[in-house]
Amino acid sequence: MTHSVKDIAAALGAEAFGAVDLLITSAAEPAGAGPDDLALAMTPAYGEALGKGRARAAVVWPGADWQALGLEAAIIAPRARLAMAGLTQMLDLPLAGKGISPHAAIDPTAKIGANVTVGAFTVVGAGAVIGDNSWIADQVSIAEGVQIGADCQIHAGARLRRGVRLGARVILQPNVAIGGDGFSFVTAEPSHVEKARETLGEGAVEPLADPTWHRIHSLGGVFIDDDVEVGANSCVDAGTIRATRVGKGTKIDSLVQVGHNVIVGEHCLLCAQAGVAGSTVIGDRVVIGGKVGVADNLIVGDDVVLGGGSVVLSNVPQGRVMMGYPATKMQTHIEGYKALRRLPRTLRDLAKRQ
Question: Which residues are part of the catalytic machinery?
């Protein structure tokens, strides 16, 4: 696929200059760009690298002297990452495959919409519904009664268990598991974990007469709203009685765990290796950084930002930026960190005064 510089600029809502009829086949980093590539030099830091490549056209920062950089054409992008989103969408290859593979196993009671693709060795269970224009890759498991909206993408190896409902334009990356049973077990008498929470660890731990963990089954399923994306190898567990919910427009990175009964609001970001424990409520537009852990039965307010590696052990008010373990306000965490760094010097000074 080829696109002219002026067509790319028009699609991005940006301005094009110079030889705008040049044809572009792909995008590249400046130093490795060839004559048919569009170099991505969106900040001044990439200016020098343009001279190492052979690009004739580039996306450059506002105010760049693109002719002095040796370019024949340039696209000016005021907001670089937004331009990157539009450009990569434009240049991406279309999804492979079309139609229903003869190697797919589709129950005769399943309802398949118009223009649906189903890949080889995919299994679609009884009563499942797949909306118009949805694309299902190879080796996907869709359990009985699952509902998939229009224009969804379900990539290879994804697993959708019973009680799962997807809205429109949902994207599930490879090996996503939606609707597995929640991690929910109980002992016949209060366990030492329950006692520890009540006593905050005070007192002796007595062994249980019957330590058997009894499984609480998950009957509530999962509801994932429109325009949600879930990254590779992430899991969203089914609710116990009511559905686990992920709100409209939320994006979940790879290797993320969303526990049973959790409610995630709209337009949130959950970054890699984050985990949200059962029955917690996440507000709208929340950003959860990489490796963040959020304990169970908490409420995280709208517009909260949780810095990478934080561990949230209590409710978080709306709009707060949190860091650390346990997570505290960002300013408090930074002050504490600085004080900790000064502690050895302070102790040396005190020792000299004695």
Answer: 260
